[in-house]
């Protein structure tokens, strides 16, 4: 049997019903509601941050690989290879990670 969601006209009333809390003043959040709201906001922020970090990690790997390819092909230092990739990205108006992915797939920066 599925548990039933607490009845109420607002989320606040639903939380009140679930925890058996009665507010002294209507429209104000109780301490429990404030805690739950804060916890949900922190959880949402943490989930967003995790998604951003996963994307950054994936992009970082492609950028690092592209730098290595440019270093090997053009006999550049790491900094020179990154600057070359960055210059090409800006001059072609292409995101750095997208250009890096193309370099990894084709082995060349010249095709762009």
Automatic annotation (TrEMBL):
InterPro entries: ANTAR, CheY-like_superfamily, WH-like_DNA-bd_sf. Residues 1-21 are annotated as: Disordered. Pfam families: ANTAR (PF03861). Residues 43-104 form the ANTAR domain. This is ANTAR domain-containing protein. It comes from Terrabacter lapilli.
């Amino acid at each position: 049997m599925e548990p039933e969601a607490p009845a109420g006209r607002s989320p606040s009333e639903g939380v009140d019903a679930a925890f058996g809390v009665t507010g002294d003043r209507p429209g104000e959040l109780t301490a429990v509601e404030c805690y739950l709201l804060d916890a949900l906001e922190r959880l949402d922020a943490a989930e967003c941050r995790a998604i951003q970090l996963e994307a950054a990690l994936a992009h970082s790997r492609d950028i690092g690989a592209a730098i290595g390819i440019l270093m090997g092909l053009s006999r550049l230092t790491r900094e020179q290879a990154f600057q070359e990739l960055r210059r090409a990205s800006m001059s072609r108006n292409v995101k750095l990670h997208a250009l890096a992915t193309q370099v990894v797939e084709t082995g060349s920066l010249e095709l762009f």
